[in-house]
Amino acid sequence: MEQSHSQNPTTVLVVEDEPFIRLDALDMIKEAGFRTYEAGGAEEAIRLLEEHADIGILFTDVNMPGSMNGLELARSVRDRWPPVKIIIASGQMTLRNEDMPRESVFFSKPYRARQIVGKLREMAAEGLGH
Description:
The protein is of the alpha/beta class.
């Protein structure tokens, strides 16, 4: 039985297979005042979402090894946890709105920290304004 997510919009799950990029993203997001969880791939991310009902935002890379890439992860999260906000990033492809799950946003790498933090804050404010 799946947990009912309370979706704390100030808790972000960062999914990135490259350790240095993941650490940079985690530092940027923590410095902006958000709580974080981290995963190196989609399978670990799904497990964390199942275990931690406080995750309100998914921040994922597209290209990852394993059975599911970041875009497939985002679609799965949208289906299973509809209130979770989604940010997708990639340095190797550009996604159009119709390629992504509804209510998600895309950033090309290298992205600017202030762009990501600004979008996280906007998503958190939306999540708090039920």
